[in-house]
Amino acid sequence: MHEFSMVNQIFRKCLEVAKQNNATKISEINLEVGDFALIVEIYAQQAFDTLKKGTIADKAKLIIKRTPGVLHCNSCQQKSEIWFSKEKEKAAVEGRLEEYEKYEKEVAEKTLLKADPNLGTNIFHCRKCDSSNTTLIEGKGITIRNLRT
Fold first, then answer.
1. Which fold has domain 2-67+140-148?
2. pLDDT by residue (tens digit) across 15-62?
3. Which of 18, 19, 23, 32 could hold 149 in an S-S bridge, CB 3.0 to 4.6 Å?
4. Smallest Cα–Cα separation from 122: which of 106, 143, 146?
């Protein structure tokens, strides 16, 4: 469950910012989570609920807004908005589900646990020309949008 380590890092940063601004409580943390960060929201919420106990964020809400990925085609230069779950559903219909499961494992192991931004295997196809010569240019990040005190 990589969500715990990710939420822990985010939570610690939020506490640090609150302390720097002399806040006595945090009531809300707003995050934007790229769909390709592969964060399961219920696990992130469970981690947050565990971490906030006994802190200035004890009664805080965690609000997560999902954002899509953006795929850039290196062949035709087209940019497309994509969502991981829809891509995975399509792959299942096409008999390519194993590729996506491998991709999910790589993201968890390389990107999140080893802080390696290179996802390795490219499995996404351009919407315009169907080329697999694509680069996922957005959608893997997690951004703290704001804190409410």
1. hypothetical protein PF0899 fold (3.30.2320)
2. 999 999 999 999 999 999 998 888 889 999 999 999 999 999 999 999
3. 23
4. 106
